[in-house]
From TrEMBL:
It comes from Paraburkholderia pallida. One of its GO terms (cellular component) is membrane. It holds the Pfam family Entericidin. The lineage of its organism: Bacteria, Pseudomonadati, Pseudomonadota, Betaproteobacteria, Burkholderiales. GO terms for biological process: response to toxic substance. InterPro entries: Entericidin (IPR012556). Residues 26-45 are annotated as: Disordered. This is Entericidin A/B family lipoprotein. It comes from the Bacteria.
Length: 45
C-alpha cells in the first residue's frame, strides 16, 4: 500500500512539473508574438 501511494505521489509531481513547463512555454510564445506585433506597429508609423 505504501508503495502505491509513493508511486501516485511521484506521478502527480511529474505531471505537475510538466504542466508548469508547458504553461511557461506557451507564455513565452505569446510574449514573443506580442513583441512582433508591437515591432510591426512601430515600423508602420
Amino acid at each position: 500500500m505504501k508503495r502505491l501511494i509513493a508511486l501516485l505521489l511521484v506521478t502527480a509531481s511529474v505531471a505537475a512539473l510538466s504542466a508548469c513547463n508547458t504553461v511557461a512555454g506557451a507564455g513565452e510564445d505569446l510574449s514573443s508574438g506580442g513583441h512582433a506585433i508591437t515591432n510591426s506597429a512601430e515600423q508602420a508609423k
